[in-house]
Structure formats: structure tokens, C-alpha cells
UniProtKB/TrEMBL annotation:
Entry protein name: MBL fold metallo-hydrolase
Entries under CDD domains matching the protein: YcbL-like_MBL-fold
Gene3D superfamilies hit by this protein: Ribonuclease Z/Hydroxyacylglutathione hydrolase-like
Cofactors, names only: Zn(2+)
UniProt entry keywords in alphabetical sequence: Hydrolase, Metal-binding, Zinc
Residue stretches making up the Metallo-beta-lactamase domain: 14-194
Listed Pfam families: Lactamase_B (PF00753)
Organism: Roseateles koreensis
Length: 213
């Protein structure tokens, strides 16, 4: 049995929304449903999955914009992010207007996450790491079993997350990458919030923002 995933770029921001599932139970979670919910739900149906939860890395509109609606329509628990992102959740309606997104429904996470927590889907368990810097409450989901990490906007192929938004801090972001991500191992493949996958080892060697760290 294993954890499987499918990544769908959603919204005008091409945000990587990932559907993750246990291939034994076919129970699934959706990570960062920023929008385009019909596409996400079609993919869930096509793979014969049962959606059980929403997991959030952070509460920027392109990652969390569809969360309230999806949770309400399907009765799903909202897991994450860390409480540091409460002010971003409170500001989702304003974010919607600012960036031209459909109005985001308000929501309250069913369960906040902290560093060292775990989340489970079917018989698969992922570790949670708190990785602030892009936002104060940003978390990352790590499956050691399949050497995959869903890192939101902490790290990209060739780049790192922005730190100029409220609550962002560049030094904190770099510390999150080096102290929380690198120990997961050079061979770990990460799924960023935007753009293609890469490995931590490749980014350590070639990413100009974190090269040699």
C-alpha cells in the first residue's frame, strides 16, 4: 500500500492543488483547494476516490480560496494551517477583491496544526513541519514513505517564497528551508505551490537563494 497523488494547477495563479490518497482505502485529502472546484471534484471522481479532508499549507487566496465552499458542500474537516495564519483567513474576502478572485467563503479550521504533528489519510500518515517565512502559519506535509513533501510557497524549483507580504520574513523563510526541509533528505521530491517539482538536493546545489546552505 502506498500514498499516491495528483497535482492540478488551479486559478489564474496556476497554484498546484494536490489530491493525495491511500491506494488501499481510496480515501483522499485535497491540499490547498484555491479554486476551480469542479475540476478538482472531477479528478476525485475519475480516480474513484472518497474525499475525506482539506489540508492547508497556508491561507493565501490562491491556496485557500475554495476551502470554505468545498468544506460546506461536502462536509469536510479543514486541517491546518498553523494558527499564525489566522489573520490571512480573516482577510480572505479582502484578498478575493484585491486579486480578482471569486468571493471566498469564510471558514474556521477544524484543527490547527503545529510543528511535529501528523495527518492521516486512509492508512497513510504524513508528518507536519511548521515552516514560517512566507506566512507566519505556513506548514509543510512530508511523506517519508514515498519521499515526497508538499511545501506550498516555501520553496520552488529555482526560487523561494516571497517574504514581502504581511507577516513574511526572508531570514525566517531561509531558516525554515535549511532547518526543516533539508533534513528530509536530498532525494526527497517536493511539490511546490507553483511550477514544476524538484528535489531538495538539486535546490541545495543550484538554487541561487539557498545554494550551499
Amino acid at each position: 500500500m502506498s500514498l499516491r497523488y495528483l497535482t492540478l494547477p488551479v486559478t489564474a495563479f496556476q497554484q498546484n492543488c494536490s489530491i493525495v490518497w491511500c491506494d488501499e482505502t481510496l480515501d483522499a485529502a485535497v491540499i490547498d483547494p484555491g479554486g476551480d472546484l469542479p475540476r478538482v471534484q472531477d479528478a476525485v471522481r475519475q480516480h474513484g476516490l472518497t474525499l475525506k479532508a482539506i489540508w492547508l499549507t497556508h491561507a493565501h487566496i490562491d491556496h485557500a480560496g475554495g476551502t470554505g465552499q468545498l468544506a460546506r458542500e461536502l462536509g469536510l474537516p479543514i486541517i491546518g494551517p498553523h494558527p499564525g495564519d489566522q489573520f490571512w483567513i480573516d482577510g480572505l474576502a479582502q484578498q478575493s477583491q484585491m486579486f480578482g478572485f471569486p468571493p471566498a467563503e469564510p471558514f474556521t479550521p477544524t484543527r490547527w496544526l503545529a510543528d511535529g504533528d501528523t495527518v492521516q489519510i486512509g492508512r497513510q500518515t504524513l508528518a507536519v513541519r511548521h515552516c514560517p517565512g512566507h506566512t507566519p502559519g505556513h506548514v509543510v506535509f512530508h511523506s517519508a514513505a514515498i519521499q515526497r513533501a508538499f511545501v506550498g510557497d516555501v520553496l520552488f524549483a529555482g526560487g523561494v517564497g516571497r517574504s514581502d507580504f504581511p507577516g513574511g520574513d526572508h531570514a525566517t523563510l531561509i531558516n525554515s528551508i535549511t532547518q526543516r526541509l533539508w533534513p528530509m533528505g536530498d532525494d526527497t521530491v517536493f511539490i511546490p505551490g507553483h511550477g514544476p517539482e524538484s528535489t531538495f538536493g538539486h535546490e541545495r546545489r543550484s538554487n541561487p537563494y539557498v545554494q550551499g546552505t
